[in-house]
Design a protein that fits this description.
Blueprint (H helix, E strand, L loop, with lengths): L2 H24 L44 H9 L5 E5 L3 E6 L5 E10 L7 E7 L4 E9 L11 E2 L11 E7 L6 E10 L4 E10 L8 E9 L16 E6 L3 E4 L12 E3 L3 E6 L2 E7 L6 E9 L2 E9 L8 E12 L2 H7 L13 H18 L2 H15 L1 H16 L1 H10 L4 H14 L8 H20 L23 H16 L6 H18 L4 H24 L14
Antiparallel strand pairs: 1-2, 2-3, 3-4, 4-5, 5-10, 6-7, 7-8, 8-9, 9-18, 10-17, 11-12, 11-14, 13-16, 14-15, 15-18, 16-17
Helix pairs in contact: 1-11, 4-5, 4-9, 5-12, 6-9, 6-12, 7-8, 10-11, 10-12
């Protein structure tokens, strides 16, 4: 058996198995090892949210625990009159603020078109029977205003027009001696909403409430992101300086969760291309980061932050940033440390980030993401050319001695020991290392996996055209032309490689590209374009080296190996 080819196919096959297994597990299906689906399928009737309760009903200590809301409170919320919605329009978003708790319950991104409803925009936040996704905030530590409290929206402009900023102010009734005034500030050309909360103590005793900010979401995969052939993560995440970036599967969240102590950080809900995140103001002291299951297919991620004691007749103001928009690395990284990690490249992050930076630099020059992908792939192939050349030379030598190896197998049929001895002698005489082509390829695998995740994760490719019929590099080729060409190049590569003497292995060489190519018919066009460019360049390199070494290009007949 050709040992080099065997190792190569084992590495390739195992990589495909583990990648496909991950796609199944995270895409809501039972994986190859029997692990159940990661995400529930539908939204069932459940309370919209639950108020994070402090351990005490009076002044809450900094280590307040998150607990479920009592049944009477849920019933009261269900019986409350319908909330009033205030629609706000900026240059980038259309949002709706609910009078109940002053929550942000709707956010439409005006620069991004929906995948499932042509002509309409992406809706990130929503509060309907089938979709739950919103940002909430309130006070705990006493009978204070929270996200279930009915608030009054004060008069003011609702459309940004030509202004640079737009403010919307809400006021709560006095509860527990506290009056809460909340101001949303929207800024032109920004997905960051500044949220200012002013607490006024109208009572006769000091109070020390805590403020919580949470994002509530159902566990459904966003429409248009369902695929059996590649995985994109949907779920909560948070970050603090000590533990860095952490994300959580919906299926792992519990009804009661012990908050995690942190002295910094943010919380977020992530989905393919888009994210929402609460970024509290800097605070000297501990805060609690938490995740929790609120009900059937309803989840929350949030932060609880203690506030200074407020004397009677005094007020306290605290601010936070709420991001609702696309996963643009530069924007997110400037907003908070580590926030750019929501664009999750997994274990290849250390390689993916510089690759994306280079892709951006190329795009600034060529001004087209399709051509940028081609140029980037060519640059990476050029950088790896010395390793690739060594691998192809090894393949060429193997192809050149292929007929002689077949002759040895025929000559020593039935005597494995003598056949192996003769093949080792042939390899030594021709200066061939059977594993010589493996190491260069294995070294390149992490780089090309990183490039794969860059192209899959980058919102910049969403809606980006290339040429002719390719109008969106993040969507599959509507006519399957690129995948068909890519499949043809995969078979051509097999033809250029030495044919293994073992018939089973020879058949496997043709079966694997066929099976692998099927997935590409459902991949985004940008990924197929990258792989097609990689294949085409590899074919050109291999053809050149084969010809230079006098090896038959399309057959296994060859001149003597040099």
């Amino acid at each position: 058996m050709d040992l080099r080819r065997s190792v190569l196919w084992v590495v390739f096959t195992m990589s495909m198995i583990f990648l496909y297994n991950s796609w199944l597990r995270y895409n809501g299906e039972t994986d190859l090892f029997g692990t159940p689906p990661a995400h529930p399928a539908k939204v069932a009737s459940a309370p919209t949210s639950a108020v994070p309760q402090a351990a005490s009903s009076t002044a809450a200590p900094p280590n307040a625990a998150v607990a479920t809301v009592a049944a009477p409170e849920v019933a009261a919320a269900a019986a409350a009159p319908a909330a009033q919605l205030t629609t706000i329009r900026t240059d980038l978003m259309e949002v709706k603020i609910s009078s109940r708790g002053g929550s942000l319950v709707y956010a439409k991104l005006l620069k991004y078109e929906s995948r499932t409803e042509p002509g309409k925009n992406v809706v990130l936040f929503d509060d309907t029977a089938s979709n739950k996704y919103m940002a909430q905030s309130g006070l705990i530590g006493g009978d204070f205003p929270n996200h279930e409290t009915e608030m009054t929206v004060l008069p003011g402009p609702r459309d940004m027009g030509n202004a640079k900023t737009l403010q919307v102010k809400l006021v709560s009734p006095i509860l527990g001696g506290i009056k809460l005034e909340r101001t949303y500030t929207f800024t032109r050309d920004s997905y960051v909403v500044n949220v200012q909360n002013t607490l006024i103590n109208t009572g006769n005793v000091p109070v020390a409430p805590q403020i919580y900010m949470q994002i509530v979401r159902d566990g459904n995969t966003p429409p248009g992101d369902e695929s059996h052939f590649y995985h994109t993560y949907t779920g909560p995440a948070y970050y603090d300086n000590a533990n860095k970036f952490q994300k959580f599967e919906f299926k792992d969240l519990k009804t009661i969760e012990t908050p995690k102590k942190a002295d910094s950080g943010w919380v977020a809900m992530i989905q393919h291309y888009f994210v929402s995140a609460w970024v509290p103001e800097p605070y000297e002291g501990p805060r609690d980061l938490y995740t929790r299951k609120l009900g059937d297919n309803l989840y929350a991620v949030g932060v609880i932050q203690p506030l200074a004691q407020i004397a009677p007749g005094k007020s306290l103001t605290t601010e936070a940033k709420l991001f609702v928009g696309p996963e643009l690395e530069s924007t997110l990284g400037a907003l908070a440390p580590g926030l750019e990690l929501v664009k999750d490249y997994g274990w290849v992050t250390i390689l993916a980030k510089p690759i994306f930076w280079l892709l951006e630099m190329i795009h600034k020059v060529v001004q087209n993401w399709g051509w940028s992908i081609i140029v980037l792939t060519l640059l990476i192939k050029l950088a790896f050319f010395p390793l690739t050349a060594a691998s192809y030379k090894s393949m060429a030598r193997m192809k050149a001695v292929g007929p002689r190896i077949n002759a040895l197998r025929e000559q020593y049929k039935g005597d494995q020991a003598k056949m192996n001895q003769a093949m080792v002698e042939l390899y030594r005489k021709e200066k061939i290392n059977p594993l010589g082509g493996c190491l260069p390829i294995v070294i390149q695998i992490p780089v090309f996996i990183a490039l794969y995740w860059v192209l899959l994760s980058s919102v910049e490719l969403r809606g980006a055209p290339w040429i002719l019929w390719i109008h969106d590099l993040s969507a599959k080729d509507p006519y399957y032309i690129l995948p068909a060409i890519m499949t043809a190049t995969s078979f051509l590569q097999v033809k250029l490689n030495p044919t293994p003497p073992d018939p089973m292995q020879a058949r496997l060489m043709w079966i694997m590209p066929a099976a692998f190519s099927i997935m590409f018919f459902f991949f985004p066009a940008g990924l197929v374009l990258y792989w097609l460019t990689n294949n085409t360049t590899s074919i050109a390199q291999q053809w050149f080296i084969n010809k230079k070494m006098g090896v038959g290009v399309m057959t296994d007949t060859a001149a003597p190996a040099k």
